[in-house]
Amino acid sequence: MLTVPPPLLVVCALLQESAGLAEALVDRETRQLAGVSLTRGRLAGHPVAIATCGMGGKAVRRALRALQPELRPRHAVLLGLAGGLDPKLPKLTICRVASVAESCGAPLRNVADSFPWPEEAQIWPAVALLSAEQVLGPSAKQTAAAHGFQLVDMESGDFFAECRALGIGATAVRVVFDEPHEALPEISTDPLGRPKLRSVAGFLARQPWKVGALLALKRRLDAALSRLRAVLVAAVEGLQQADTLPSSGQSVE
Questions:
Q1: Is CB count within 10 Å lower at the N or C end of the chain?
Q2: For 234-250, what is the mean pLDDT?
Q3: Which residues of 199-232 are buried (b: 16+ CB within 10 A; e: fewer)?
Q4: Does domain 8-252 have CATH number 3.40.50.1580?
Q5: Cα-based angle 104, 87, 221 (whole degrees, multiple of 5)
Q6: Are strands 8-12 and 75-84 parallel, antiparallel or unpaired?
């Protein structure tokens, strides 16, 4: 009798991230589970579940609690975009989160990554990440960089803490989307990160000359999503190369 392994749980904050990753799956189906959009399918024969939780730490915790009873994953991977704080990390760099803190004054907590990444993943920089409560502007980014942080997002801290509480192995991989001194267009989004059409229209009405910048940003997003799909492929490859599936040995110290 064949034993079906538990799915690799992939957690994304933004719908653009999860939708881009779901394109790599076959036999996929999407449904709502306790308010979380969940797409299940297979990649290279391995079961994968991709959850869209929305932005912020509370949304990540809520999604993990809702999904754990049904999926019972051994390992969860937080995949998505992050803001760059280190000039040495250019846009579209793939990074593994090695340590995390929730504020500039808080001590960094090391992440013991036990995920069986394939050899190709060893070239990804291991970074210190600030898990902030809100999107940072250029000035706040400079402050965070001065404290030694290299990336910023809004989910990693709570993701690691909740996975530890649930006994799920956790690892986080981010793709650098914007650079330290870059101010992204002020366009409102919904909780899943989708731009609001009225906000986009208003932005272009005020600054019509920036339509080219928006198109360039879309091309950057497409390139970032392509890199995230490569990370997902590498994650499944690592699981298949391992003699046994990873246990819930991931923790934040």
A1: N
A2: 68
A3: eeeebeeeeeeeeeeeeebeeebeebbebbbebb
A4: yes
A5: 95
A6: parallel
